[in-house]
UniProtKB/TrEMBL annotation:
<feature type="signal peptide">
    <location>
        <begin position="1"/>
        <end position="20"/>
    </location>
</feature>
<keyword id="KW-0732">Signal</keyword>
<protein>
    <recommendedName>
        <fullName>Glutathione peroxidase</fullName>
    </recommendedName>
</protein>
<feature type="active site">
    <location>
        <position position="58"/>
    </location>
</feature>
<dbReference type="GO" id="GO:0004601">
    <property type="term" value="F:peroxidase activity"/>
</dbReference>
<dbReference type="InterPro" id="IPR029759">
    <property type="entry name" value="GPX_AS"/>
</dbReference>
<dbReference type="GO" id="GO:0034599">
    <property type="term" value="P:cellular response to oxidative stress"/>
</dbReference>
<keyword id="KW-0560">Oxidoreductase</keyword>
<dbReference type="InterPro" id="IPR000889">
    <property type="entry name" value="Glutathione_peroxidase"/>
</dbReference>
<comment type="similarity">
    <text>Belongs to the glutathione peroxidase family.</text>
</comment>
<dbReference type="InterPro" id="IPR036249">
    <property type="entry name" value="Thioredoxin-like_sf"/>
</dbReference>
<keyword id="KW-0575">Peroxidase</keyword>
<dbReference type="Pfam" id="PF00255">
    <property type="entry name" value="GSHPx"/>
</dbReference>
Length: 177
């Protein structure tokens, strides 16, 4: 009986109805990289988000290593790192399997990676459309957006700002307190 109750609660929490009280830009269902599974970003409600537009064949692709280090260091403190592969700058693989290989095999990424999508312009995915309106669209790959847990503040860091830079670490630590 206890197992059935726990299972019922888990199903209820995962259902779309549980996102009804999520009224911000994260209430969107997006497909994960190389998967049929989708994620509603509202499941990360009340947690700060580090959202990054990524590319597999960019001079900044090595930042995956530091993004993974951030994920490992701060995931238990509430930080959620999510990558958004994009070919907007013509540096992403054409085949999603190849993108997944770069992320998961070459760089050992364990944080959530979404399916390839646009991150700027009229065709930007809903998350990056909002980020662009509020903080400016990415001008290149590996722009990092730190979104506060209450979704009211967005800090943008350019490609050249490394994930483990003092600037990014200080901003993250302010958000997880």
């Amino acid at each position: 009986m206890i197992k059935q109750t726990i299972f019922a609660v888990a199903i209820a929490l995962a259902s779309p109805l549980s996102f009804a009280n999520c009224d911000d830009f994260t209430n969107v269902e997006l497909r994960k990289l190389r998967s049929k599974d989708t994620v509603n970003l509202c499941q990360f409600k009340d947690k700060p988000l580090l959202l990054v537009n990524t590319a597999s064949n960019c001079g900044f692709t090595g930042q995956f290593e530091d993004l993974e280090k951030l994920h490992q260091k701060y995931k238990d403190k509430g930080l959620v790192v999510i990558g958004f592969p994009s070919d907007d700058f013509f540096q992403e693989e054409n085949d999603e399997a190849d993108t997944a290989k770069v992320c998961f095999i070459n760089y050992g990424v364990t944080f959530t990676m979404m399916a390839t999508s646009d991150v700027r312009g009229d065709d930007a995915n809903p998350i990056f459309k909002h980020l662009g309106e509020q903080a400016g669209s990415p001008k290149w790959n590996f722009y990092k957006y730190l979104v506060s847990a209450d979704r009211k503040e967005i800090q943008r860091f350019g490609s050249r700002t490394k994930p483990l830079s003092e600037e990014v670490i200080t901003a993250i630590e302010k958000e997880i307190r």
